[in-house]
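ok so I'm stuck.
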Amino acid sequence: MTQVEFIDTSTRDGDQSLWGATGLATADVLAAAPVIDRVGYHALDFTASTFIGISVRFHREDPWRRIRLVSAAMPNTPLGMITTGMRFISWVPAGEDVMALAFRLVARNGIRRLQVVDPSNDPARLRDIAALAHAQGIEEVVLGLTYSISPVHTGEYYAERAAALADCRDMDRFYLKDPGGLLMPAVVRELAPHFRAAAGARSIELHSHCTIGLAPLVYVEGVRAGFHAVHTGCGPLSRGTAQPEVVSTARNLEATGCTHELDLEAQDRVAHQFYALARAKRLPSGGPREFDAAYYKHQLPGGMVTTTQRMLAEIRRPELFEAVLDEVTRVRADMGYPVIVTPVSQFIATQATYNVIDGERWKTVSDETIRYFFGHYGEPPAAVNPDVADRVLSRPGADKLRDLRPITLDGARERFGKRISEEELLLRLTMAGEQVDAMLAARGRPLELAVRDGAARPPLVELLRALEQRPGISYLEMVRGGERVVWRRGE
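replied:
not stuck anymore, here's the structure
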């Protein structure tokens, strides 16, 4: 009998795919954290640099405090972060010194696991990022190849790249990431042997979205084909454009003879808390989706679908959504069929929107897209449209971006101050100063739950809240039985 592991995606990918990445404040996650910790997940897909930026910009919350508090409340479940390793918050590429600092800070504040995907599925770059992350204190590095469909992205393409990672000493786990929910059972069966061979004795994980309704079946077939772990969401933060729901996935796998170690009673309590939160904040719950073959044309990830809809609604042009999706297909072909994953997915969706609104293709082009054509985000899998490339790179001001230097730490202390913490320094280096100032001004604000649901906070949450209000206490360690909880105040 196969024992399957689960990675919970609710607080990161679920929030991003269904709630625009802004639905969960620190208090919302912290209230559920002790119960999530009892479910038995291998890890929690917890944050990304985008979420660190949103904590500051949208919630005016200290993102480092968020990591520390939730990490302390979940001693048994490693918190994870996803990254491309090429940027941190800003769209401008980051130098190796900045990424090393970012990895060191997230590890210092409580992130133990890192999922790494590269926009070009470049094995060499993945290997470099894995080594850098381990060197900065990340315990578990999970390298991923992102699934896509194009004339270039064939079974042989994925077999070659998987094989190129087989001897990577810094890869602790290997995973197949399907942000568009495009995998079919036959395809996952075809790819699984290549992932198994590359991983050797290491575990392989499967990540897909329910956007066109296939992910639950893909998970069953993927485990049958040899995947050891699946990524699932909880309650309202599952299904829809997010991941399959954990309890139904567990039941499906049980029906095929698999076992797991999840406490589904504890999981029901987590779902109850998130459903209550969704009602209180008037946030949508993910629901089952019908199969939609049109997604095989544009392949936008779930989060980008909702982001594009919101963007069009904000400019009062929601009726353009279908036209934008059609244009996404043409833009991607012009750009050499890149994998539609952050940050390139944002560039493609934005460019398609410009083309539709302007009524003229490639009339308006963002700086980030110009940088893409200069190769700043890796080599495209196929040749770009030469006419489009000429038009983009001959735009006024394009030459100024040709030799754009990545963000580095050079001179950062002189610019921002020698006495501020490294955590604040990194935020000021990658965000607008007024946004960081607003976050710092709100730093003493107590965490407030959106919903109490008639229940008292767990004692550990109450203790952590009290510690945050006592600046004289900088360190606390609790040991009970075989469990150890450590809390440190940030620098």
